Batch of 3 targets.
Target 1
Amino acid sequence: MPPRAAPQEKPRENQLTRILTAAAAQLGPIGRNETRASAVKRMIQMMRRGKERGVRYMVFPELALTTFFPRWYMEDWKEVERFFERQMPSADVLPLFEAAREYGIGFYLGYAELTDDGQHFNTSILVNDKGRIVGKYRKVHLPGHSEHEPQRPWQHLEKRYFQPGDLGFPVWRSMGAIHGMAICNDRRWPEVFREMSLQGVEVVSLGYNTPDENTSASEPKHLRNFHNDLVLQAAAYQNSCYVIATAKAGIEEGVGLIGGSLIAQPSGEIVAKAQTLGDEMVVADLNLDATRMGKETIFNFARHRRIEHYSRITGQTGVVLPPEGEVQGDPVPSRHAPA
Ligand code: CDV
């Protein structure tokens, strides 16, 4: 029998042609009395450093302009709304947009949005390297509670202060990539990433404020960072995309926030991770063409998804248990039974 020819290695097309140098721009704590202008100044400092390192896109945290105010119960909505933005960019935030244009660096920014008709959202925007807003996302999965729970050491009142997002999970073409956005708790929900990857997403940006302790149930502290890595890496792998996740970190108004900002690549591996709990930039070259392998093979959705079996995903929220009682199954014939 003639020897079998070695399989020809397919040439890799467009190798290293689409690189987006990106950064997770982690912020250390922002105090209750810190001004937006001060937070913006810190972000611009990072942008300047990003420029020196060849960064073209930066991701800032969730609610990046103020302290994480849902930790306090406030009855007076005037007090609450002091943490919200009525326009974007406001005069305080405009310098960040100008820096983006000057340095040619696009960014993701999380903030509390108050609309003209009085709606409150936990929002992020995608701003391109010319300083223009190209996309907006409003957080869908709001964690926490809506009433004061005095037994907790601090509150998590996102369900009180925000409405669930009403924009779904769009994606946008910008800066040579297909971008999607999510915010904090969204990362724990695989549907979020699948919605975006069904639109071909290549880069998902996500900001977060995650306390280092679970105040609703007892849980070892180390799990907070473990679960962060776990869901972000799984999302990157199962959707063959990059995930840039950026924390607000450190002790903020007495509450510890996990850091661990990271960039995960389509293999699910972490390519860069924060070392500190302060202002820190984590940089990586995103090879956008590296998202194709997974999208064309094991996660080729058009070939492999079986939507006829997925109706519960959109038709049901809570768990519906099977009927009570153990299923008996058919009797198995015994080897020792008389013939
Ligand atoms: N800001 C958040 O959404 N925080 C949640 C906490 C409350 C668990 C998170 O998922 O990290």
Note: The chain has one domain: 19-303.
Target 2
Amino acid sequence: MTEKLRLGVNIDHVATIRNARGGRHPEPLRAAALAASAGADGIVAHLREDRRHISDRDIERLIDEIDLPLNLEMAATEEMLSIALRHVPEGVCLVPEKRRELTTEGGLDVIAQADQLKPFIARLKNAGILVSLFIDPSPAQIEATVAVGAPAIEIHTGTYCDVEDGPPRVAELRRIEAAARHAASLGLEVRAGHGLSFDTVGPIAAIPEIVELNIGHFLIGEAVFSGLDSAIRRMRAAMEKGRAQASGVRSA
Ligand code: PXP
């Protein structure tokens, strides 16, 4: 049977709007509480080196005051490691980070950074934190993930979302499907995210090996028009519709 698909709601851009005026509104913690009541399974927040959106205090409060598990996205630096070990979130997703990028531009190069990542991941795992690596849908990066000891991957769906709808998007979808199959066959938990919207989520939700989607920017943008509760519920419905197609294919 196809596993239930979890939804992690990324609240970074609630903090982006708050920080535009330097005050307290809108409050990411309130968005997290609302996401919980709208049916999210987890909260995702990226603590960036430059603190452009989520702050250290946000992380502290998300851990202390929100019942949902927190997946902390962070770069593999000593500063972030000490923050993660201090707060012990349920999960840490390691992402590449460049100061001048607008958003995470590609997956982590696990092959190139294996020597640094292996001990880093071990320290997180020793603290009981579930580590995932944000990678492109590449077989070589998946195999390197196994070699460095991470139990989970998050497949970068940004290219799939950005390319033209039609054959280019189908080609990207096939890469993601093959990557998900390969990773699951090696025993990795498979998640996916980046750039997903109501229009693009269905085919990704239909991939049976994927157990979690992490979605932020589109939901916060859509919340401007319809409210966060409605945006999250509609996203869940779109995910479930896609998932039902996966179950249909399997049982047919
Ligand atoms: N997953 C990871 C690892 C990310 O870095 C991001 C963006 O912070 C997301 C998911 C969510 O992407 P988006 O905000 O485009 O939905």
Note: The chain has one domain: 29-231+238-251.
Target 3
Amino acid sequence: MVDNWFSAWRHVFKLDPDKELSDEALDALCMSGTDAILIGGSSGVTFENTVDLMSRVRRYEVDCALEVSTLDGAVPGFDGYFVPLVLNTDKAEWIIGKQIEGLREYGTFVPWEETAAQGYIILNEDATAAKVTGANASLNEEELVAHIRMADRLMRLPVIYIEYSGRFGDMKLLKSARKAVQHASLFYGGGIDSGEKAKLAAEHAHTIVVGNIIYSDLEAALSTVQAVKSAQ
Ligand code: 1GP
């Protein structure tokens, strides 16, 4: 794996600027020992709600990065920025279209040292991101490995993100993805709602991302941190 500003992250909480989160819950998440807070969402992300959440997380020492998924939500002041490209769609706007629009507008302001492209491979057809981007979520192992080689060897993307948002994924596929990755950091996200699932995903992914469960069962979300740390 190539060394990057996010390479040491094993566990990340993903917070959605469009969802309510109390100060107590945010405090517990930021002080949990997680490696980073990632801010991003598939809908309802605005400049205002992104700035608001960033400034609340900024009170803590934990790394805080933004996934730039809309132009509206491009906010300065984060430790790092991820720019997602969806690899398993044939709609070019989600591979390079929106990104080029963003660079036309904000290209001169991008902090390149702290900015990384994420090659998303979305494998849950029910996820909002899959619907919005028209992703072909039913890749078999051979197709997945071809996508990984495209991202890792040809495109040399620093991050490959296996995304099952809303559902726990197929760990056999994740294992195959990991075997095929040479340079990139492999992120996994989707349906991690217990320490046990966190551990399973962390066996293969370099970094696991915990999202939805934060909003429905905070204690379960917090338990995923220790599960990953103690498995190291
Ligand atoms: C979403 O991959 C993350 O982009 C996390 O998924 O919300 O299902 O935990 P969950």
Note: Residues 11-230 form a domain with the TIM Barrel fold (CATH 3.20.20.390).
